[in-house]
């Protein structure tokens, strides 16, 4: 499936478990939850999981300072030989909570120069930091793009915070869309590999994701990962977008089969913002801060 990927790109993805399906059997990623703040509101968010920007009720992540994160990355690198990628994927937005993201990447790169750096963002603040990402050798970026039409966006995003104030309605969705498109183009210009994650929300953006797929391909995205909205019933109500159900597996697959633009990622495990290990084999519980010695 990756036959038409050029050798330079292949070299960058061959040990990234999300960007290469082959790699996910052999290479591990870890997330550090250093970025709790977010600048938009997704109707489905509960800040427990990310990359995904998806919603799955669960146990809260341990939020780390950059120093704690560096200690944790070193401890994990010593225990998990397959570790190849450090990702920052929330639990808020890694580009909005930029100081902590930047400090973490800089310190980790100093300690472990060969680890690949990866970031996941909603895209609103991304254009402000693309040059710094390039300087820090962050070569994998994921943007969560759920629409390319603000009329769809208004059903997903009640507000955004941008330019020192809150925007709502069509205005909010339009600004977010423009910033996401600008971010995509800036990454492509700099040769930073970009994946688009989309949350499939039945009745809201399911058909529309066909258009999203075409548009993001046109703007240089390497991969498109369509994930199901996870909408568990909690206390009798669905936890999704305004009580929205998630898609059935067959609905997700039927949509994926219709996407003909950019290449699809189909092995996503919708990781927690503090996941560690091979995809689908989360070892995060083995590395709580309490168990990491101060001295390292
Ligand atoms: Fe993490 Fe995301 Fe980087 Fe991967 S996860 S920041 S690109 S290193 Fe991967 Fe997890 Fe799916 Fe994300 S399986 S939720 S796509
Ligand atoms: Fe939640 Fe992520 Fe949306 Fe921010 S971008 S509101 S953290 S799902």
From TrEMBL:
A GO molecular-function descriptor: metal ion binding
Keywords linked to the UniProt accession: 4Fe-4S, Iron, Iron-sulfur, Lyase, Metal-binding, Nitrogen fixation, Plasmid, S-adenosyl-L-methionine
Instruction: Describe the location of the Radical SAM core domain by residue ranges.
Output: 24-274
In terms of superkingdom, the source organism counts as Bacteria
Q: Cofactor(s) for this protein?
A: [4Fe-4S] cluster
Q: Where are the transmembrane segments?
A: none
Job description of the protein: Involved in the biosynthesis of the iron-molybdenum cofactor (FeMo-co or M-cluster) found in the dinitrogenase enzyme of the nitrogenase complex in nitrogen-fixing microorganisms. NifB catalyzes the crucial step of radical SAM-dependent carbide insertion that occurs concomitant with the insertion of a 9th sulfur and the rearrangement/coupling of two [4Fe-4S] clusters into a [8Fe-9S-C] cluster, the precursor to the M-cluster.
What family does this belong to?
Answer: Belongs to the radical SAM superfamily. NifB family.
Protein name as it appears in the record:
FeMo cofactor biosynthesis protein NifB
Q: Source organism lineage?
A: Bacteria, Pseudomonadati, Pseudomonadota, Alphaproteobacteria, Hyphomicrobiales
Segment of the intact protein contained: 35 to 330 of 490
């Amino acid at each position: 499936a990756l036959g038409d990927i050029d050798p330079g790109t292949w070299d960058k993805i061959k040990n990234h478990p999300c960007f290469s399906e082959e790699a996910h059997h052999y290479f591990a990623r870890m997330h550090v939850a250093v970025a709790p703040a977010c600048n938009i509101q997704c109707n489905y968010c509960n800040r427990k999981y990310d990359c995904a920007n998806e919603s799955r009720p669960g146990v809260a992540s341990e939020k780390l300072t950059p120093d704690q994160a560096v200690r944790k990355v070193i401890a994990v690198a010593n225990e998990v030989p397959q570790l190849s990628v450090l990702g920052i994927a929330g639990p808020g937005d890694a580009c909005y909570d930029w100081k902590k993201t930047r400090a973490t990447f800089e310190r980790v790169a100093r300690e472990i120069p060969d680890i690949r750096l990866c970031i996941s963002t909603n895209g609103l603040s991304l254009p402000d930091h693309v040059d710094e990402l390039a300087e820090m050798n962050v070569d994998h970026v994921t943007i969560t793009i759920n629409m390319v039409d603000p009329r769809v966006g208004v059903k997903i995003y009640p507000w955004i915070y941008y330019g020192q104030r809150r925007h709502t309605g069509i205005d909010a969705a339009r600004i977010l869309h423009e910033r996401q498109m600008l971010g995509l183009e800036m990454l492509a210009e700099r040769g930073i590999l970009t994946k688009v994650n989309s949350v499939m929300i039945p009745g809201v953006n399911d058909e529309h994701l066909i258009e999203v797929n075409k548009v993001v391909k046109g703007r240089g995205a390497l991969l498109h990962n369509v994930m199901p909205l996870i909408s568990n019933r909690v206390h009798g109500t669905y936890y999704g977008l305004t009580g929205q159900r998630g898609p059935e597996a067959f609905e997700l697959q039927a949509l994926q089969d219709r996407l003909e633009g950019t290449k699809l990622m189909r092995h996503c495990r919708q990781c927690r913002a503090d996941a560690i290990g091979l995809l689908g084999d989360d070892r995060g519980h083995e590395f709580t801060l309490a168990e990491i010695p101060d001295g390292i």
